[in-house]
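Duplicate of #3305? Posting structure anyway:
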């Protein structure tokens, strides 16, 4: 973990400010179509139905959660370290099947055995976050055999103080292999939709908890 982790990087006054935090030149181009691509892939691979309770770790403004609920009628718990993101996600998703929770609130409910989800996903999040607490939260939420979907850059890009980004050298894929079986590598399905000049090497995988 980088010593001076900068959570303030994910603050904003409105949905436009918050979207701009996570949208760069190539991610802005992806935003319009990858939401549907990811949602459809998760629905099929993770067998998401109206009876499913799904964790969106690093929900942001809720673009994936909104799409999943719209397509399946499932329930989604959105967790984020940013209270601003959570506030706007409630407005953006705007559905009774969506619940926004702070990381602390969600961790306490998992610890007390009050929540066990049917599946989880984390999209363009674990590359940026304080990894181990985030990862353990996801892991403890899932029963054995439950599906997990991740889309992530191969290298870490952690916000640090003073303002900047750092790679702490953590191999997220190797860490995941300790607790999950790979069920489908969907990286090629994603990369063929990326702009030719996209700057990050990525992986996109479905797995199930051991």
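Output from current build:
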């Amino acid at each position: 973990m980088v010593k001076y982790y900068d959570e303030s990087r994910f603050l904003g006054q409105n949905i436009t400010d918050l979207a701009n935090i996570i949208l760069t030149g190539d991610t802005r181009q992806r935003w319009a179509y990858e939401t549907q691509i990811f949602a459809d892939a998760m629905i099929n691979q993770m067998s998401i139905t109206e009876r499913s309770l799904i964790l969106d770790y690093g929900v942001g403004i809720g673009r994936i959660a909104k799409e999943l609920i719209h397509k399946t009628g499932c329930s989604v718990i959105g967790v984020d370290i940013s209270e601003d993101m959570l506030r706007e996600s409630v407005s953006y998703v705007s559905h009774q099947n969506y619940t926004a929770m702070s990381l602390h609130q969600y961790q306490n409910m998992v610890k007390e055995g009050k929540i066990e989800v049917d599946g989880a996903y984390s999209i363009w999040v674990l590359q940026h976050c304080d990894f181990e607490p985030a990862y353990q939260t996801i892991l403890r939420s899932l029963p054995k055999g439950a599906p997990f979907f991740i889309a992530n850059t191969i290298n870490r890009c952690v916000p640090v103080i003073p303002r900047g980004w750092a790679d702490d050298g953590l191999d997220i894929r190797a860490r995941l292999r300790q607790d999950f079986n790979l069920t489908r590598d969907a990286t090629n399905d994603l990369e063929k939709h990326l702009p030719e000049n996209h700057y990050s090497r990525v992986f996109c995988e479905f797995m199930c908890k051991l």
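Confirmed duplicate; merging threads. Residues 8 and 188 are 34 Å apart (CA to CA). The longest strand covers residues 202-209.
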